[in-house]
Amino acid sequence: MQKDVKELVMTIVKPLVTDPDAVSLEVVEGEEFMEYHLEVAEGDIGRIIGRQGRIIQAIRTVVYFVPVEGKKVRLLVDQ
Protein backbone atom coordinates (compact mmCIF):
# COMPACT_ATOMS: atom_id res chain seq x y z
CA MET A 1 0.00 0.00 0.00
CA GLN A 2 2.95 2.36 0.60
CA LYS A 3 3.91 1.98 -3.02
CA ASP A 4 0.40 3.01 -4.10
CA VAL A 5 0.56 6.25 -2.12
CA LYS A 6 4.06 6.95 -3.37
CA GLU A 7 2.98 6.45 -6.99
CA LEU A 8 -0.10 8.60 -6.43
CA VAL A 9 1.94 11.50 -5.04
CA MET A 10 4.53 11.26 -7.80
CA THR A 11 1.80 11.12 -10.47
CA ILE A 12 0.23 14.30 -9.08
CA VAL A 13 3.44 16.24 -8.39
CA LYS A 14 5.66 15.57 -11.42
CA PRO A 15 3.45 17.41 -13.97
CA LEU A 16 3.33 20.46 -11.67
CA VAL A 17 7.08 21.06 -11.44
CA THR A 18 9.62 22.35 -13.97
CA ASP A 19 12.27 19.79 -12.91
CA PRO A 20 10.53 16.41 -12.51
CA ASP A 21 13.86 14.58 -12.13
CA ALA A 22 14.49 16.45 -8.85
CA VAL A 23 11.29 15.13 -7.26
CA SER A 24 11.85 12.52 -4.56
CA LEU A 25 9.63 10.99 -1.93
CA GLU A 26 10.91 9.30 1.22
CA VAL A 27 8.70 7.24 3.53
CA VAL A 28 9.22 7.30 7.29
CA GLU A 29 7.11 4.89 9.34
CA GLY A 30 6.15 5.90 12.87
CA GLU A 31 3.83 4.37 15.44
CA GLU A 32 0.76 6.39 14.40
CA PHE A 33 1.76 7.89 11.07
CA MET A 34 3.25 7.05 7.71
CA GLU A 35 5.15 10.22 6.85
CA TYR A 36 5.88 10.97 3.22
CA HIS A 37 8.64 13.56 2.84
CA LEU A 38 8.41 15.22 -0.57
CA GLU A 39 11.46 17.01 -1.94
CA VAL A 40 11.41 19.15 -5.07
CA ALA A 41 13.86 21.58 -6.66
CA GLU A 42 14.10 24.88 -4.83
CA GLY A 43 12.44 26.76 -7.67
CA ASP A 44 9.46 24.39 -7.66
CA ILE A 45 8.49 24.70 -3.99
CA GLY A 46 6.09 27.54 -4.77
CA ARG A 47 4.48 25.50 -7.53
CA ILE A 48 3.77 22.65 -5.09
CA ILE A 49 2.53 24.82 -2.24
CA GLY A 50 0.48 27.17 -4.41
CA ARG A 51 -1.21 30.40 -3.42
CA GLN A 52 -2.20 30.28 0.23
CA GLY A 53 -1.26 26.57 0.26
CA ARG A 54 -4.14 25.50 -1.94
CA ILE A 55 -2.25 23.06 -4.15
CA ILE A 56 -0.50 21.17 -1.34
CA GLN A 57 -3.76 21.05 0.59
CA ALA A 58 -5.55 19.55 -2.42
CA ILE A 59 -2.79 16.94 -2.81
CA ARG A 60 -3.00 16.11 0.91
CA THR A 61 -6.78 15.76 0.71
CA VAL A 62 -6.45 13.10 -1.98
CA VAL A 63 -3.54 11.27 -0.32
CA TYR A 64 -5.06 11.22 3.16
CA PHE A 65 -7.99 9.12 1.97
CA VAL A 66 -5.76 6.21 0.94
CA PRO A 67 -5.60 3.71 3.83
CA VAL A 68 -2.07 2.64 4.75
CA GLU A 69 -1.78 -0.31 7.14
CA GLY A 70 -4.22 1.25 9.61
CA LYS A 71 -2.05 4.35 10.09
CA LYS A 72 -2.66 7.99 9.30
CA VAL A 73 -0.75 9.54 6.43
CA ARG A 74 1.23 12.78 6.57
CA LEU A 75 2.63 14.53 3.51
CA LEU A 76 5.43 16.98 4.27
CA VAL A 77 7.31 19.20 1.83
CA ASP A 78 11.01 19.33 2.71
CA GLN A 79 13.43 21.92 1.45
From TrEMBL:
InterPro entries, A to Z: KH_dom-like_a/b, KH_sf_prok-type, KhpA
Keywords, alphabetical: Cell shape, Cell wall biogenesis/degradation, Chaperone, Cytoplasm, RNA-binding
Superkingdom of the source species: Bacteria
A Pfam family: KH_KhpA-B
Record carries keyword Cytoplasm: yes
Primary location group: cytoplasm
Cell compartment(s), UniProt: Cytoplasm
Subunit comment: Forms a complex with KhpB.
Homology family: Belongs to the KhpA RNA-binding protein family.
Function: A probable RNA chaperone. Forms a complex with KhpB which binds to cellular RNA and controls its expression. Plays a role in peptidoglycan (PG) homeostasis and cell length regulation.
Protein name: RNA-binding protein KhpA
UniProt lineage: Bacteria, Bacillati, Bacillota, Bacilli, Lactobacillales
